[in-house]
């Protein structure tokens, strides 16, 4: 039997697939998602709504024209319209306590909060697309391992079939090999379905239910050593969730100032001319109205706004502590994954590859049974699958580190065009 029949290349070389014309890169996936993701598209309507609210908040108190006709259709001297009095006047209010500025600042704070919220949504989308793209790469590499497993199982069946016919191996070994081949075929079909599912999950981020690509292009083992933990801790100040909480605190402060301004006294005034029909004379009319206990009526809104501001500040402080703990945990997981990856790729796999080659040679010489060869095959393939899973975990923790610190490399995407 051909000695190359059971030769299996190392996974390091297998992971560097040639890029097909119908492949998609991470940059292309990010660009498509940032341009066509339906969730991001809704922010333009919310910005337009706040722009209209800002226009309304900037308006000064309206001026009203008031007319009043008195002393008509009465009795005696006031019968008919001979004693009528017609008053025409303008009326408005005078806002005290910078109420207009407080309204404008509250809307401006909501606009800033929305801009930060959109930024967070963009970063979440970028992280999610990275996750799905890496998951697709891992599924593709797992598919290659399953294809190799199916090929090995088929070759082993063919070899044992010849040996059984020649009386050099028991039939039981052939039966076990055929069962292993059927199991490999079944697993191969499942893995192919998983690749298709991962492609659909990825294309869903740009609302495409029928992706026109057949694979993702990239090297799953392309990982660099991470920055020091102290560097990541310094970048934690850029965490988008912290910025959103800080904007929430500023928004609640603006709402508190607005509530306090609305509690200030508002003066109403009116001025006009009164026509005295009986004497055919005119006179000026002036009036002022002052609300009573306006401060007490606003006390509930002020207390509510103050409590919400305190709650926002407390949430911001609590989030900082939780994020620092999460950063330390993810960094530890990332370094552990990288260490395991290097050990699997540079030490364990080469040794198992060498052991498998020796077992395959001994099997051809009749010194080992098919059970020993199948065990060596399975041991090597399982380790390659473990390398894929470890690389996937290393990428996932790297993506989370970048999401926590808002330090993902986005310069090559269209983020600058879509983010506020």
Characterize the structure shown.
The structure is a single chain. With 420 residues, the chain is an alpha+beta fold. It has one domain (3-61, 98-265, 293-418): Outer membrane efflux proteins (OEP), CATH 1.20.1600.10. It is built from twelve helices and six strands. It has helices spanning 11-14, 26-36, 38-41, 43-57, 99-166, 171-203, 229-235, 240-262, 294-297, 299-364, 370-405, 415-418; strands at 23-24, 64-70, 85-95, 215-216, 266-276, 281-289. It has a four-stranded antiparallel β-sheet, with no helix packed on it. Strands 1-4 form a two-stranded parallel ribbon. Helix 2 packs across helix 5 (99-166). The longest helix has 68 residues, at 99-166. The two termini are 66 Å apart. Mean pLDDT is 80; it is low at 1-21 and 411-420.
């Amino acid at each position: 039997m051909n000695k190359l029949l059971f030769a299996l290349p190392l996974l390091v070389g297998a992971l560097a697939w040639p890029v097909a014309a119908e492949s998609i890169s991470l940059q292309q996936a990010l660009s498509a998602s940032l341009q066509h993701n339906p969730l991001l598209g809704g922010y333009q309507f919310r910005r337009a709504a706040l722009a209209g609210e800002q226009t309304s908040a900037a308006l000064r108190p309206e001026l009203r024209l008031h007319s009043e006709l008195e002393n008509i259709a009465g009795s005696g001297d006031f019968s008919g319209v001979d004693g009528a009095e017609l008053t025409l006047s303008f009326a408005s209010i005078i806002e005290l306590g910078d109420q207009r500025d407080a309204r404008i600042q509250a809307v401006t704070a909501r606009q800033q909060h929305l801009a930060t919220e959109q930024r967070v949504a963009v970063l979440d989308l970028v992280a999610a697309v990275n996750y799905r793209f890496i998951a697709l790469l891992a599924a593709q590499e797992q598919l290659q391992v399953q294809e190799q497993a199916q090929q090995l199982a088929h070759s082993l069946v063919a070899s044992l079939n010849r040996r059984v016919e020649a009386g050099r191996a028991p039939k039981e070994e052939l039966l076990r090999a055929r069962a292993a081949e059927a199991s490999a075929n079944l697993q191969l079909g499942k893995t192919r379905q998983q690749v298709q599912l991962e492609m659909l999950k990825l294309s869903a981020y740009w609302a495409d239910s029928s992706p026109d690509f057949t694979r993702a292009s990239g090297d799953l083992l392309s990982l660099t050593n991470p920055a020091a933990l102290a560097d990541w801790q310094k970048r934690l100040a850029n965490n988008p969730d912290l910025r959103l909480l800080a904007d929430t605190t500023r928004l609640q402060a603006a709402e508190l100032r607005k509530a306090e301004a609305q509690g200030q006294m508002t003066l109403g005034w009116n001025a006009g001319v009164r026509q005295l029909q009986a004497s055919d004379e005119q006179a000026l009319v002036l009036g002022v109205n002052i609300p009573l206990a306006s401060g007490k009526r606003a006390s509930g809104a002020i207390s509510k706004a103050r409590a919400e501001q305190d709650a926002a500040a407390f949430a911001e402080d609590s989030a900082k502590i939780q994020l620092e703990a999460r950063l330390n945990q993810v960094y530890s997981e990332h370094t552990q994954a990288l260490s395991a990856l290097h050990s699997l790729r540079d030490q364990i796999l080469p040794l198992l590859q060498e052991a498998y080659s020796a077992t395959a040679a001994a099997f051809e010489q009749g010194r080992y049974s098919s059970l020993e060869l199948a065990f060596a095959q399975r041991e090597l393939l399982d380790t390659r699958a473990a390398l894929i899973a470890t690389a996937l975990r290393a990428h996932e923790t790297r993506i989370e580190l970048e999401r926590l610190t808002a330090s993902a490399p986005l310069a090559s995407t269209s983020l600058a065009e879509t983010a506020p």
